[in-house]
Write a structure and sequence with these properties.
Blueprint lengths: L2 E6 L4 H9 L4 E6 L2 H9 L5 E5 L8 H4 L6 H10 L9 E5 L4 H10 L3 E4 H6 L3 H25 L8 H15 L7 E4 L6 H11 L7 E5 L5 H9 E2 L11 E2 L1 H4 L4 E5 L9 H10 L1 E2 L8 E2 L3 E6 L3 H7 L4 H7 L2 E4 L10 H13 L7 E2 L1 H9 L5 H12 L6 E2 L1 H15 L23 H15 L4 H8 L3 H10 L13
Parallel strand pairs: 1-2, 1-3, 3-4, 4-5, 6-13, 6-14, 7-10, 10-13, 15-16
Antiparallel strand pairs: 8-9, 11-12
Helix pairs in contact: 8-9, 12-14, 15-17, 16-18, 18-19, 19-20
């Protein structure tokens, strides 16, 4: 996650310094007008403020005060006198430090005080001060973030912290063992949340069983959930134990519950009420002790209005809803996610690939319609054949490769990027970038076609077309295309 740092400085010298010496872990926003800066702070999502003490101009004299030399102090008083804003750390920066002004700023409530002279001597002096304050601010959330990050729920943005609160409620009390409903778009990581609920809860030593309700035809789903007796239907040649019995004393995860048939909904409702059921074709009831975690990527309330989902079943599921945010709503977590996936590719922190600030900047501005799952697959593709660092050029090559092989590049993914932010766009032809990527992957796999296809996640027929087009037929191994 990139820390949101607000800079209030009429000369913008602080902003220039920060951009020169600090990386993508910070998201800087600069105001040369104290009044406008205060308005921005009040909107929220600011985690630290760098405040120039001595303003050389006074853009808002009537509002801010009569003396430009004290405008920084005036802003500081406004911040620290506000119950809502006073907890935001503030570092005062000044060219002209003296003992009295330092004491005055600290008395008002500044969290630290920095002289420009110290910054000229030590390029990382200010960043160390900032990190100390930011990490102290994060300490209250640190354990929560660490706990859920272990289960692949990577991030510490405000959106993720909002999700962690109900998730913590679902696991912190062993006596609280209610049904959980996980909501979110495809690819956000709903099953990761479900597994966290299980492994951090009181049933962690028992089984976790999952089923995708949308992947199984309605007439078979009942048998998968409840099981069946031998002879219950034509192909029932032996008794079958259902998912709920397998998960007894553990957790059953029902994914895509919005696709469940009308005929099955009342049977599932009865099970949620009593935890009792009958196998298909049976005449006796069975009882189990199982926790239900359900998930959906559709609006169940809308399905209820349309008559496609029972209202009473909706309320049975909706005991503790957990909303998993879309990746586009938490782009500050993309640097952490990218590093996590790069580490996964190599298997250890020591061997993991690095990634440049420019590449991270591109990933943060790209639209991710497939959410975290799409980012993970993109990182896999961009890391193929790399040995040390993933650069912006590598990312752009992977982006361009996606168009001819996997779909249409003009689908809005890069709509938020300006032409001048991508120096390679328009300078390297798409075909050339694609050929370079294919050769790189083939070299990595000793020129074997089958392995290269698996790495690029494309079919052989399309890959053979590229082999012929780029005149690589004589180099590759295992080529049987026409």
């Amino acid at each position: 996650m990139a820390y949101k740092v607000l800079i209030i400085d009429d000369t913008r010298e602080i902003h220039k310094y920060c951009m020169d010496f600090m990386d993508y872990e910070y998201d800087f926003e600069c105001f040369d007008n104290g009044f406008e800066g205060l308005k921005r702070v009040k909107k929220g999502d600011v985690q630290l403020i760098l405040l120039d003490k001595n303003f050389s101009t006074l853009p808002s004299e009537k509002i801010m005060g009569p003396d430009p030399k004290t405008e920084g102090v005036y802003i500081l008083k406004k911040l620290k006198n506000s119950a809502k804003l006073k907890k935001i750390p503030v570092i005062m920066v000044t060219n002209f430090a003296d003992y009295n002004s330092t004491v005055e700023a600290l008395d008002i409530g500044a969290d630290d005080y920095v002289e420009w002279e110290a910054l000229r001597i030590d390029d990382f002096f200010l960043e160390r001060k900032m990190l100390d304050l930011l990490e102290n601010r994060d300490r209250e959330h640190a354990e929560l973030i660490k706990m859920f990050n272990k289960f692949g729920l990577i991030g510490k943005s405000d959106k993720m912290l909002e999700m962690f609160k109900p998730l913590q409620l679902a696991v912190q009390d062993a006596s609280w063992d209610k049904t959980v409903l996980i909501l979110g778009e495809t690819g956000v990581g709903k099953e990761l949340v479900a597994r966290a609920v299980h492994h951090l809860g009181s049933r962690s030593r028992k089984g976790f069983v999952s089923i995708n309700c949308a992947a199984i035809p309605g007439e078979l789903l009942e048998s998968e959930l409840f099981g069946h007796e031998k002879g219950a239907f034509t192909d029932a040649r032996r008794d079958k134990v259902g998912l709920f019995e397998i998960a007894d004393h553990g957790t059953a995860f029902l994914d895509e519950i919005g696709s469940m048939s009308h005929s099955l909904q009342p049977k599932l409702l009865r099970f949620l009420q009593s935890r009792s059921f009958m196998r298909v074709g049976a005449t006796t009831e069975r009882n189990v002790d199982v926790r239900i975690v359900a998930a959906t990527n559709v609006d169940l309330r809308e399905l209820v209005k349309q008559g496609d989902f029972r209202e009473d079943l909706y309320y049975r599921f909706n005991v503790l809803p957990i909303v998993v945010p879309a990746l586009n709503e938490r782009s500050d977590d993309i640097p952490s996610l990218a590093k996590f996936f790069l580490k996964q590719q190599r298997g250890s922190e020591q061997d993991s690939l690095g990634i440049t600030n420019e590449a991270i900047g591109f990933l943060k501005k790209r639209r991710w319609f497939g959410n975290v799952r799409e980012l993970e697959n993109f990182i896999r593709r961009v890391s193929l054949g790399k040995h040390k660092v993933v650069t912006l050029k590598d990312v752009l090559m992977a982006e361009r490769l996606e168009a001819p092989i996997g779909g249409d590049v003009a689908d809005g993914r890069c709509a938020t990027l300006e032409q001048n932010e991508c120096p390679f766009i328009g300078k390297i032809p798409i075909k050339k970038m694609e050929k370079m990527m294919i050769i790189k992957v083939l070299e990595k796999n000793d020129w074997y076609v089958k392995k290269a296809c698996e790495d690029l996640q494309i079919g052989k027929s399309k890959f053979y077309q590229r082999i012929n087009e780029y005149e690589l037929k004589d180099k590759v191994k295992g080529f049987d295309g026409n």
